[in-house]
Design a protein that fits this description.
Elements lengths: L4 E9 L2 E8 L7 E11 L1 H9 L9 E2 L3 E9 L11 E5 L12 E5 L3 E3 L6 H4 L3 H14 L20 E4 L4 H12 L5 E5 L4 H7 L3 E4 L5 H9 L5 E4 L4 H8 L7 E5 L2 E2 L12 E2 L14 E5 L8 H17 L7 E5 L4 H13 L6 E6 L4
Helix pairs in contact: 3-4, 3-8
């Protein structure tokens, strides 16, 4: 065990978070140590800190599933990365890889090398939602995985695909990836403030999901048949809306957990389910429901070996994928920055932005 220590923002018990000192380990085989510059705060961080989800009593738990920074050291067997490289990464499991700390140890397969001039702040918005969108579309929904640049239209190029809640950060990546992969009939639902941006990302149709005639507009854009749906909000209310437009033999991918009511961020007394209860399911048996657990994406060997190490660096180098807008917390102490960011996410005060915390200066 290393005798060195560094600062980390962690949950130390249910409902309690603070900056603590943790050991600074060295990278093992296939691992990379990153000097963290920025990290994101996402709803899952609030579920872990507020309700102890995914913890199993093993405290403290460092928070932050996205990170960007500079490679400080590499373990044996790591190819394509070296000390000094700018990177972003996704923490799949374990506190040592989380982003809200000064040094993180991640698997090299979850790490993407950045162009030399790429913003570390912008890069911290990318990993979880890029992975979620790609995994959902091209594994869970079983659309044909693209090889960029796309030279031949995919089999479902002219099939309407609905991205519900596309103004969410995950939805923005889903729209981009579908358009880049050659899908021409992407239908997005979002509040009007996001419509022009989603069209610039490649949505063919954008519908206000608060409009009374939303189902009719979706079906009109789809041509009365809607086979594929990605629900980026995954609440009871959004699933009910989707059930009124999806084809009887359609496929619906839900980003888990599903929340009670109509909001993506769950409060203290709101139920969440990793499997949709039978009595809450608004779909007929003929509709296929797929629950998306992004943390499991590396079970797909192709995605494990290619998505972050090879595909994302190429898309960033060619500047053909756009990061999310940033809501930055960079003032005060690390404790202040992290706590304020967590509060904003917990209270649902985010709209189409990624909440980013500055961890350290590079």
């Amino acid at each position: 065990m290393s005798s060195q220590i560094h600062l980390a923002f962690a949950t130390t018990a249910v409902g309690i978070t603070s900056v603590i000192q943790v050991p600074t380990p060295s990278p093992g085989p296939g691992e990379v140590m990153i000097k963290v510059a920025y990290s994101a705060v996402i709803p899952l961080d609030t579920y872990i800190s507020d309700y102890g989800r995914l913890v199993n009593g093993d405290y403290p738990v460092v928070l932050g599933f996205n990170l960007s920074g500079v490679v400080g050291a590499v373990g044996s067997g790591v190819d394509g990365l070296q000390t000094g490289d700018k990177v972003c990464a996704f923490a799949t499991a374990g506190s040592k890889g989380k982003g809200l700390q000064e040094y993180a140890i991640v698997q090299s397969s979850t790490c993407a090398k950045l162009p030399d001039d790429y913003s570390l702040k912008a890069a911290a918005t990318i990993p979880d939602n890029f992975i979620t969108a790609f995994y959902t579309l091209f594994d869970c929904l079983e659309l044909t995985p693209p090889t960029f640049p796309v030279s031949v239209p995919p089999p479902h190029a002219d099939t309407p695909i609905l991205v519900y809640g596309a103004g969410a950060t995950s939805g923005q990546y889903a729209v981009q990836l579908l358009a880049l992969a050659g899908y021409k009939r992407v239908i997005a639902t979002a509040s009007p403030r996001h419509h022009s941006y989603l069209k610039s990302l490649g949505a063919a149709h954008v519908v206000d999901y608060n409009a009374d005639d939303m189902p009719q507009k979706i079906l009109l854009a789809a041509g009365r048949s809607l086979q594929f749906v990605l629900d980026c909000i995954s609440a009871e209310g959004t699933l009910k809306s989707i059930s009124s437009v999806v084809s009887p033999d359609g496929v619906v991918a839900m980003l888990l957990p599903v929340t009670e009511g109509s909001r993506h961020v769950a409060g203290k007394d709101v139920q969440m389910w990793m499997e949709l209860p039978v009595d809450r399911n608004p779909f007929p048996d003929s509709v296929k429901l797929v629950g998306v657990r992004t943390l499991l994406y590396q079970q797909n060997e192709y995605l494990r070996d290619n998505l972050m190490p090879k595909l994302l660096p190429r898309l960033l180098e060619e500047a053909i994928i756009q990061p999310n807008r940033v809501l930055l917390f960079d003032q005060g102490s690390l404790q202040d920055r992290c706590q304020e960011a967590l509060d904003v996410v917990r209270n649902g005060q985010v709209n189409g932005e990624k909440v980013i915390v500055k961890v350290a200066s590079m």
